[in-house]
Amino acid sequence: MSTNTRSRASTVLRSPVGDERTRFSSQAPQILACLDEDMNRLEVTRHARAIAKALDLQLGFAQIVETAPHGVLPADPIEWNLRFTECRDGIGELIGEASETVSDVLPVVLPGTAHERLIDWAEGHRGSVLVLARHSGRGPHSGLGTTADRLLTSGAASMLLLPSGRERKCSAEYRRLLVPLDGSPNSESVLPVVTRLAQSLEAQVILAHIVSPTAELPSLETQAGSDRSNTSARARNYLETWKLRLLRQGIDATVYFGTDSETCERLNLIASRLEIDLVVVASHGQTNLASAPYGSVAGALAKSAPCPTFIVQPDLRIPLAKPGRSGFMFEALAAETEFAS
User: Which parts of this chain are annotated as the region Disordered (predicted)?
Assistant: First the structure.
């Protein structure tokens, strides 16, 4: 494809998108519902709307118009423009419903390959959340589909991943939140997000810590009585401490402690038995490998949790409780005096 042809294609494809983007600051974090022409479309819309309202973030609806490899346009430009218009009209219908509960909804039509364009969008809107189904309504219905897997692996944004509609219809009311903690500051950093969700939705929070039979809690090793025989008692005290801090925030909180070598399997079992509506987990825990986009627990829950899973990256930006303030997730943890005590 010649340089001139590429330039013309870029102009035709991106000028409508550019017009839409001017309505929002490129620095403003958003909730972006990633839509596809499948059975998950309405589910993604409902859950994105619920999270946007709870976290007080702007909401966008994105539709990908797939192009041929290397951005080659269809041979018929009229057909291409019709596809583009149909996408915008379809998003407009969804926005009409969403605007009843969330104001200022942005339509985004992104031409190209789905995961590439969504990663580009996320990098331009740091601290945002992508909402999508784990996989489409077509093909195998386990694990992650190609788009969800590549987005998760990129680490470009926090993600709310939904089971496919063929797996389970999930409520977007989020009455029960499961929050895995492992004793590390990384896992604890989701608590300001959990607090906002729980207070906004009047939800119950279940704090869970699953200890390997041979594990030690790193953040508690310097405390008195640190030999392995006291690990379970200290882990329970650790959970109770965070429970009390949530209770002081007016949040209904409880704890679950268990010993198991298969952390994710136990968490999935808890989610099923307690009818959890949403799992909220930090992208990284104890290991905190800078080279990895997510830890082993977050990755496993993304693929197999029986309910929606909110994987929170460190750069997630949410408005803080005090008027006129906003910040990154880790900054939020220190800023809330109740959690800093």
Answer: 1-20
